[in-house]
Amino acid sequence: MHDKQDESVASLIEEFLTARATRKPSPHTLAAYRRDLLTVAGQVGEAPPLPLDELSITALSPRVMRQAFARFAAPRAAASVHRAWSTWNSFFTFLVAEGVVPGNPMPAVGRPRAPLPQPKPLRGEDTPEELLAAVARDDGRQRDPWPERDLAVLALALCAGLRLSELLALRVASLAGRPGERRVEVAGKGGRPRVVPIEDDLDRLLAAYLDSRARRFGARSVRPNSPLLVDRRGEPLRRGGLQYLVDSCYRRAGIVDRVPRGARLHALRHTFATRLAEDGASAAEIMRLLGHASLASSQTYIEVTAGQQRAAVRSNRTNRSLAGLVREAAGGPGV
């Protein structure tokens, strides 16, 4: 076996994270990997736990990992335990490939089934339109209003279903295709590229944004390899800046109370997917457009939409009136 088997768990975790970084995960994802690995490793052994730079990888037998995960799982939700299990499974798969350990103990460690996350679209039938209209209006309270840029961000999430990390990765050249066949080329989650068609109205809105940017910062600022989304100084938008921008748009539109807790920008993507389902798109079409890894994630939008439609029909006043008639008919004379 590889001589690295004597290395500490702490040093091997850092090697694994370095290897993962070459896949270009988001900083948020990389931080989640680190947190899951360190937190579970801290559950190994009796209290107080052995420092991780003194804990040998050979100590992590299936029995030890089962005990550590049992302690880790006790106060946590099933989704958190499932995510941590997947991280550790990837970690041991990496160690096996590197010849550090002879096998992966994680198949012997139980894990809960991860519930599929429920869609969190904006609440209110006309809320997306209200949001776009409010952001398009001149707001005298802003020191340096840039409605063209703000609309471009919202529209790419609402009309193309892009994730936060996908928006940040876009380049000017990501907008491609001939008139009438325009598309946005997306570097998707997990390195899966996809192409999302864009309609003429969105294309014109994006063109207006790029024109406004050229006026602000010069034609050089819109070269093909330039980041598509920039801040008011012309610098590439970053995660925190993009989240703040979307939050400020919600406040300006007065719809903060219609944004699901914890969704923020993702509520726009979920609104896109939910409307696709409402308009009859299949799970396979939603999967392709949103870049889901599995059909099950896409099917969730259709199931939720069907449930909402049935609830709406059930609440219809005419249906409630029918219920009384049916009860009267059941108790009345036969026909």
From TrEMBL:
Family annotation (InterPro entries): CB, DNA_brk_join_enz, Integrase-like_cat_sf, Integrase_catalytic, Integrase_recombinase_N, Integrase_SAM-like_N, Tyrosine_recombinase_XerCD
Source species, domain of life: Bacteria
Keywords attached to this entry: DNA integration, DNA recombination, DNA-binding
CDD domains in the record: DNA_BRE_C (cd00397)
Domain annotation Tyr recombinase: ranges: 117-314
Record PROSITE patterns: CB (PS51900), TYR_RECOMBINASE (PS51898)
Domain Core-binding (CB): from-to ranges: 7-96
Any one GO biological process: DNA recombination
Similarity-based family: Belongs to the 'phage' integrase family.
Protein name listed in UniProt: Site-specific recombinase XerD
